[in-house]
Design brief:
The chain has 19 helices and 21 strands. With about 525 residues, the chain is an alpha/beta fold. It has a six-stranded mixed β-sheet, with helices on both faces. It has a six-stranded mixed β-sheet with strand order 16-21-20-19-17-18, sandwiched between helices. The radius of gyration is 30 Å and the shape is elongated. It starts with a strand and ends in an 8-residue tail after the last strand.
Length: about 525
């Protein structure tokens, strides 16, 4: 049997020494380049340098080393084509049966604050993508297609098939080849995004090109996480795709501990709840129904936060999504188990809590580690295009508030105002949120009129037996007329926080002074459509 050959050249060296040792133990000859070859040789492996294999030394500071007919013919020759194989024999070229390559770390390089244009360009891999594409193209020969790997997590599967069959299966090679083209597409996409984000410089300019906020072309790559039973409605097909690299703390990093499969609406609502709850540092609970918070509270522990949040609107909480930013303990789990809910999210659960919640077998239990990652931008699909924007992360500091009323806020009112404003950020516009003592008391969301949102928030509080006397109220955008202010004050609010900026600000401020209530401006708004 002809000796098989593996060419190994990787930037990500995770597990590569062990994998190369395993290949060598199975009688596979090793070729390698540069730092990878040195690493394998230091591990005691017999490795042939690519330059020795091709008879052509690296040139141009290593820019040209694998771009050689001996390499590409060895990858591209069809094993079941006698003419191809005779050509290799005539030229003294060996087949390359395994290719293990991952590319220069371009994305990691440009993510550095001090990355220069020259560093970025030098981290554009040329030989690697060429070999990967060649090997992936030639995966399908049933008599011995090329096995190509870009991901260390695939090493065990290759070794398992070698041990079981003496060769890799066509199915595995197809899966690996498809990963290659996804890998090189993402790589080229990242390069295109970077280069098209550079501001066009004058022909004679010598300064490093500066990056603009947006690329002229935008390439995205998403991975299918799961197919869904249906979308928002049963007649709509749906799937859940995630970013190829998911930062810590984002919803798509969840681990499902129990419960039914997540639905389209579950995932959308869970994200709304998780983003809201992780914006708080104190123990917090957020209950979401149809993408809007219907109850939010902070307290000394998760149990108390839940009791306060649930009290806001028990009717809407039925069948809702509940999220915590601190561990769910037994007391919290016991309280939650008294209601029907679709999804529960938390960074951790005590053993006792998991035992209690296991009785609710259909409840989807998600565990997500808290983290600081955020999506790079928000996206909205429109006919024939996409709207992109920075995520709304402009968190207000208390010292930024402008008191515009004659009446000055007390420290307690300032705390309530800041809490109400933080909640309003996650409520669909037009948003009106009444709060007191770290708890939502009434929420009006998604109405065409801010006046209607104010009335609905007051009605919901009344229907749930909550008094709005001496509450703070937040409006996500300015009051265009005084009538909205009149409604919230009549309901019991004594402190109002709003962006300001209306041509009728003076009229609204005068109304606040007439009612002898506090009003502060933020200078920023939180539209959420």
């Amino acid at each position: 049997m002809t000796t098989q050959t593996a060419l190994i050249s990787v930037s990500d060296k995770t597990g590569i020494t062990e994998f190369a040792q395993a290949l060598a133990q199975r009688g596979i000859r090793l070729l390698s380049t540069g730092g990878t070859a040195k690493l394998l040789q230091e591990a005691g492996l017999e490795v042939t340098e690519v330059a020795e294999h091709t008879g052509f030394a690296e040139i141009l500071d290593g820019r040209v080393k694998t771009l050689h007919p001996t390499i590409h013919a060895g990858l591209l020759a069809r094993r079941n084509d006698q003419t191809h194989m005779q050509t290799l024999t005539n030229l003294g070229i060996d087949t390359i049966d395994f290719l293990v390559v991952n590319l220069y770390p371009f994305v990691q390089t440009i993510s550095k604050d001090n990355c220069s244009f020259e560093d970025a360009i030098e981290n554009i891999d040329i030989g690697g993508p060429a070999m990967l594409r060649a090997a992936a193209k030639n995966h399908g020969d049933r008599q011995g297609g090329v096995t190509v790997l870009t991901d260390p997590s695939d090493y065990p599967a290759v070794l398992a098939e070698l041990d079981q069959h003496g060769h890799t299966s066509l199915g595995l090679r197809l899966r690996l080849a498809s990963k290659v083209y996804a890998h090189t597409a993402a790589y080229d996409g990242a390069i295109a995004n970077y280069l098209t984000s550079l501001q066009e410089a004058e022909p004679q300019a010598s300064a490093t090109p500066q990056r603009s906020a947006w690329s002229r072309t935008l390439n995205l790559q998403l991975q299918l996480k799961q197919s869904l039973r249906y979308g928002e409605n049963p007649h709509q097909a749906a799937a859940f795709y995630v970013d190829s690299q998911v930062g810590a703390g984002l919803l798509s990093s969840f681990e499902q501990l129990q419960g039914k499969e997540l639905s389209f609406n579950n995932i959308a609502d869970a994200d709304a709840a998780w983003e809201a709850v992780r914006s708080f540092t104190a123990p917090a609970c957020v209950i979401v129904k149809h993408a809007n918070p219907c109850g939010v509270a902070v307290a000394s522990n998760s149990h108390q936060a839940y009791l306060k949040a649930f009290k806001t609107d028990p009717t809407s909480a039925f069948g809702g999504i509940i999220a915590f930013n601190h561990e769910v303990d037994a007391a919290t789990a016991q309280a939650i188990s008294q209601q029907f809910l679709e999804v529960l999210l938390a960074p951790s659960y005590s053993a006792e809590a998991l035992e209690i919640l296991s009785a609710k077998k259909n409840t989807r239990l998600l565990k997500i580690a808290l983290g600081t990652a955020h999506n790079p931008y928000d996206v909205k699909r429109v006919g024939g295009g996409w709207l992109l924007q920075d995520p709304d992360r402009n968190h207000l500091r208390q010292e930024q508030l402008q008191v515009v009323s004659k009446k000055q806020p007390t420290p307690a009112q300032l705390n309530d105002l800041m809490f109400a404003w933080q909640v309003a950020q996650f409520v669909k516009s037009n948003a009106i949120v009444f709060c007191t003592d770290g708890m939502t008391m009434g929420v009006g969301a998604g109405q065409m009129s801010r006046l209607d949102s104010a009335k609905i928030a007051a009605i919901k509080a009344q229907s749930n037996g909550l008094s709005l006397q001496n509450t703070a109220v937040a409006s996500d955008a300015f009051f265009p007329f005084r009538d909205g202010l009149d409604v919230v004050v009549e309901a019991g609010a004594t402190a109002i926080i709003q962006p300001g900026g209306s041509i009728r600000d003076d009229e609204v401020i005068a109304a606040a002074d007439e009612h002898e209530v506090v009003m502060v401006f933020t200078g920023q708004r939180h539209f959420r459509h």
